[in-house]
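ok trying again, last paste got cut off:
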Amino acid sequence: MEIFTIVLASLLSIFSSVGVITDGIIQRTLQERLNKVEQLAVRLDNPPSHQLLLEGRIDRLRMAGRGVYPIPNLRVALLEVETDPIDIDLSTLKQGIPRFDQPLQAGIRLILEQKDLSQFLESPVVLALIREVARDALGGLSNQLDQYNITKPDLIFLQGDRIRFNLNLQSKRSPNETFILSAETGLSVVNGHQINLVEPQFELNGQRIPAFIVNGFLAGVSDELNLKRLESSGVLARVLKLQITPSQLELALFLRVDPQSPLLTRRMGLKPRPSRTAFFAP
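nice, full thing came through this time. structure:
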């Protein structure tokens, strides 16, 4: 949702400040809100009169970018966004409570490259998130994690829509003592809203970790990857495509935001932050 939020906040910011939107204005605003972008193109489809723009309406917005960084150190190799008609109630912007006159619908396609995600994993913020996730995965053994430094996190894309995640646990007392923790799983989509883990496997130094240790963690991950949880915030999200090759992950989604969604007010103007499911989040 981070990228989509940036697009929403940019549109609302422009309408509230100038009342008129052009391709160039949207592009510049997006570039300012994104952490970094290598290439970005924006196309606005509207009647030449601009009357609809003055009323807060856009027929269609299309955006394509390469090398898009929604947050520091996370590079999206390819990003494409295309919306259905957008109709913003301009009077609500003046009140500081933005609302749409109709649901906002958009299609999003993005490609994440394996090398970019591996580099992202090495950032301090993500290492802290990895420690939190590892603590949940170890359950009753989580206190032992404080005795180790987490190093060399790595994500590998495999054939058959599978991924493998590796990291080293280096003893703080004996630096030469290192354990290798590995997790491998397939990913599949059920009914468009549930991303399932397929045959997940956890190993420590090549030895399988018993299921009873990680079952609670897996149940929590499954809940996080259920997109229906977003519906309580007025957001309907459906996965149209999820494909993994050894070099990249491709994800296509459909999003629908209800006019009264708190997403519009809660996230407007805020810098996005990586969540525990940032690797899968659109």
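cool. The CA atoms of residues 170 and 178 lie 4 Å apart. The chain has a mean pLDDT of 83.
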